[in-house]
Amino acid sequence: MSKLIIRTDSQGDGHFAAPRGYRLHYGVDYQWRPGEVVPAFLPGRVNRIIFPYADDKLFMGLEIVNDTFVLWQLYIDPLGGIIGKAVDRGDIIGAAQDLSRRYGSGMINHIHVQVYINPQVLFGG
Known about the structure:
- By secondary structure, the protein is mainly β.
- It has one domain: Distorted Sandwich (Glucose Permease (Domain IIA)).
- It has two helices and 13 strands; from the N terminus they run ββββββββββββαβα.
- The protein has helices spanning 100-103, 119-123, and strands spanning 8-9, 12-13, 19-20, 23-24, 28-31, 37-39, 44-50, 61-65, 69-74, 76-78, 86-87, 92-96, 110-117.
- A six-stranded antiparallel beta sheet has the order 5-13-9-8-7-11.
- The longest helix is centred in the C-terminal third of the chain and has 5 residues, at 119-123.
- The chain is globular.
Protein backbone atom coordinates (compact mmCIF):
# COMPACT_ATOMS: atom_id res chain seq x y z
CA MET A 1 0.00 0.00 0.00
CA SER A 2 1.34 3.42 -0.86
CA LYS A 3 1.44 6.28 1.64
CA LEU A 4 -2.03 7.00 2.94
CA ILE A 5 -3.19 10.62 3.05
CA ILE A 6 -6.13 11.59 5.27
CA ARG A 7 -8.74 13.83 3.66
CA THR A 8 -9.23 17.37 4.94
CA ASP A 9 -11.36 19.77 2.89
CA SER A 10 -14.19 22.30 3.10
CA GLN A 11 -16.63 19.49 3.95
CA GLY A 12 -14.71 18.34 7.04
CA ASP A 13 -11.83 16.38 8.43
CA GLY A 14 -11.31 12.67 7.75
CA HIS A 15 -9.35 11.91 10.92
CA PHE A 16 -10.60 9.43 13.52
CA ALA A 17 -12.94 11.09 16.05
CA ALA A 18 -13.24 14.31 14.01
CA PRO A 19 -16.44 16.22 14.88
CA ARG A 20 -19.47 15.52 12.69
CA GLY A 21 -22.09 17.86 14.11
CA TYR A 22 -23.56 16.08 17.16
CA ARG A 23 -21.44 12.94 16.65
CA LEU A 24 -17.87 11.85 15.98
CA HIS A 25 -16.30 10.30 12.88
CA TYR A 26 -15.45 6.71 13.82
CA GLY A 27 -13.34 5.87 10.81
CA VAL A 28 -10.61 7.41 8.72
CA ASP A 29 -11.06 8.91 5.22
CA TYR A 30 -8.07 8.20 2.97
CA GLN A 31 -7.76 10.14 -0.27
CA TRP A 32 -8.35 7.87 -3.28
CA ARG A 33 -8.91 8.63 -6.94
CA PRO A 34 -12.19 7.49 -8.52
CA GLY A 35 -11.66 4.21 -10.35
CA GLU A 36 -8.34 3.49 -8.59
CA VAL A 37 -8.13 -0.08 -7.27
CA VAL A 38 -8.62 -0.55 -3.54
CA PRO A 39 -6.85 -3.28 -1.54
CA ALA A 40 -8.14 -5.00 1.57
CA PHE A 41 -6.61 -3.20 4.55
CA LEU A 42 -6.70 -6.35 6.72
CA PRO A 43 -7.14 -10.10 6.10
CA GLY A 44 -10.46 -11.89 6.52
CA ARG A 45 -13.55 -13.10 4.72
CA VAL A 46 -15.58 -10.63 2.67
CA ASN A 47 -18.90 -10.95 4.46
CA ARG A 48 -21.27 -8.62 2.64
CA ILE A 49 -21.85 -5.42 0.69
CA ILE A 50 -22.85 -2.52 2.92
CA PHE A 51 -24.61 0.70 1.97
CA PRO A 52 -23.57 3.84 3.89
CA TYR A 53 -26.70 5.77 2.82
CA ALA A 54 -30.18 4.31 3.23
CA ASP A 55 -31.48 6.69 0.56
CA ASP A 56 -28.80 5.99 -2.08
CA LYS A 57 -27.80 2.44 -3.10
CA LEU A 58 -25.29 3.81 -5.63
CA PHE A 59 -22.69 4.12 -2.86
CA MET A 60 -21.44 0.95 -1.22
CA GLY A 61 -18.62 -0.74 0.56
CA LEU A 62 -17.50 -4.08 1.90
CA GLU A 63 -17.45 -5.72 5.30
CA ILE A 64 -14.45 -7.99 5.98
CA VAL A 65 -14.58 -10.20 9.08
CA ASN A 66 -12.24 -12.46 11.05
CA ASP A 67 -12.04 -13.58 14.71
CA THR A 68 -10.41 -10.32 15.78
CA PHE A 69 -12.30 -7.56 13.96
CA VAL A 70 -14.99 -6.38 11.58
CA LEU A 71 -13.59 -4.01 8.94
CA TRP A 72 -15.69 -1.66 6.83
CA GLN A 73 -14.22 -0.15 3.68
CA LEU A 74 -16.71 2.26 2.11
CA TYR A 75 -17.13 4.05 -1.22
CA ILE A 76 -15.94 1.06 -3.22
CA ASP A 77 -17.38 -0.67 -6.28
CA PRO A 78 -16.73 -4.29 -5.20
CA LEU A 79 -15.13 -6.83 -7.51
CA GLY A 80 -17.65 -9.28 -8.93
CA GLY A 81 -17.81 -12.52 -6.96
CA ILE A 82 -15.88 -11.13 -3.98
CA ILE A 83 -18.60 -11.86 -1.38
CA GLY A 84 -17.67 -14.94 0.66
CA LYS A 85 -14.03 -14.92 -0.47
CA ALA A 86 -11.04 -14.97 1.87
CA VAL A 87 -8.70 -12.03 1.27
CA ASP A 88 -5.25 -11.13 2.54
CA ARG A 89 -4.09 -7.63 3.30
CA GLY A 90 -3.30 -5.98 -0.03
CA ASP A 91 -5.61 -8.14 -2.18
CA ILE A 92 -7.68 -6.01 -4.58
CA ILE A 93 -11.33 -5.89 -3.47
CA GLY A 94 -12.73 -3.22 -5.79
CA ALA A 95 -12.32 0.30 -7.15
CA ALA A 96 -12.95 3.67 -5.50
CA GLN A 97 -16.26 5.33 -6.26
CA ASP A 98 -16.65 8.95 -7.38
CA LEU A 99 -18.03 10.89 -4.40
CA SER A 100 -18.59 14.04 -6.48
CA ARG A 101 -21.82 12.36 -7.63
CA ARG A 102 -23.14 12.87 -4.10
CA TYR A 103 -21.13 15.79 -2.69
CA GLY A 104 -20.03 17.82 -5.71
CA SER A 105 -16.49 19.10 -6.03
CA GLY A 106 -16.11 20.41 -2.46
CA MET A 107 -15.11 17.05 -1.00
CA ILE A 108 -11.84 15.29 -1.81
CA ASN A 109 -12.53 11.81 -3.15
CA HIS A 110 -11.74 9.13 -0.60
CA ILE A 111 -12.47 5.73 0.84
CA HIS A 112 -13.66 5.39 4.43
CA VAL A 113 -12.03 2.74 6.64
CA GLN A 114 -13.57 1.74 9.98
CA VAL A 115 -12.63 -1.13 12.33
CA TYR A 116 -14.61 -2.79 15.10
CA ILE A 117 -12.52 -4.92 17.51
CA ASN A 118 -13.81 -8.07 19.21
CA PRO A 119 -13.69 -7.20 22.97
CA GLN A 120 -12.79 -10.81 23.85
CA VAL A 121 -9.47 -10.33 22.05
CA LEU A 122 -8.68 -7.37 24.31
CA PHE A 123 -10.21 -8.49 27.59
CA GLY A 124 -10.71 -12.28 27.37
CA GLY A 125 -13.82 -14.16 28.29
